[in-house]
Design brief:
This protein is of the alpha/beta class. The chain is built from six helices and seven strands; from the N terminus they run ααβαβαββαβαββ.
């Protein structure tokens, strides 16, 4: 738990100069950010070795998953992708301070070589339709996508089905009764 407290202390300190999260959300950062991100860990396949977090921003859910993997002794490598160099500096600081097996990639998702990730996550990055395009490029053959979505989750799934065929399971959010985690398996563009 000390590492989570360190992470949140760094978040509060850095948030004063870099807009990592809404200042109002810091009062409830444990539930709004940490617990909301931690719920993805329970959906991680036990044989997963490579987790790719897109548009990582303040590290949610990527750094939380890396902390939980470390605590569980899981051999999971987490890569966080963020285009803002200042946010990457924050991510590197947290990863180093907490001794995490996490790689930070500065750049645009579209410019990365295929990652062959077992799990791909993105929180508050883009509509599901766009996330599926990233997933198609970066997931391993049997990889999954885990995408937390708010109250528009059903609309986003419907809209994504216009361009994609995909296996989809909705997991109710443990932190928001109007939200869900969209788990995407097999995937192909229509």
């Amino acid at each position: 738990m000390q590492h989570f407290e360190t992470y949140l202390a760094l978040l509060e300190k850095w948030n004063r100069t870099i807009n990592l999260v809404s200042p109002a959300s810091l009062d409830d950062a444990w539930r709004r950010h940490v617990l909301d991100s931690a719920q993805l860990w329970r959906l991680c396949p036990p044989d997963a070795r490579n987790w790719l977090d897109l548009g990582s921003g303040a590290g949610f859910p990527g750094l939380v998953v890396a902390l939980l993997a470390r605590m569980a002794g899981a051999p999971l490598r987490v890569t966080l992708v963020e285009s803002d160099e200042r946010k990457c500096a924050f991510l590197r600081t947290v990863a180093s301070t907490c001794a995490l097996d996490a790689r930070i990639e500065t750049g645009r998702i579209e410019d990365l070589p295929p990652a062959l990730a077992d799990v791909i996550s993105a929180r508050a990055l883009a509509p599901l339709d766009k996330l599926l395009g990233y997933a198609q490029i970066h997931r391993a053959a049997c990889g999954i996508g885990l995408f937390p979505k708010g109250r528009t989750v059903h609309k986003e799934v419907t809209e994504a089905r216009r361009n994609w065929r995909f296996d989809c399971q909705l997991h109710p959010s443990a932190t928001d009764p109007d939200a869900a985690i969209v788990e995407v398996g097999a995937l192909e563009r229509v």
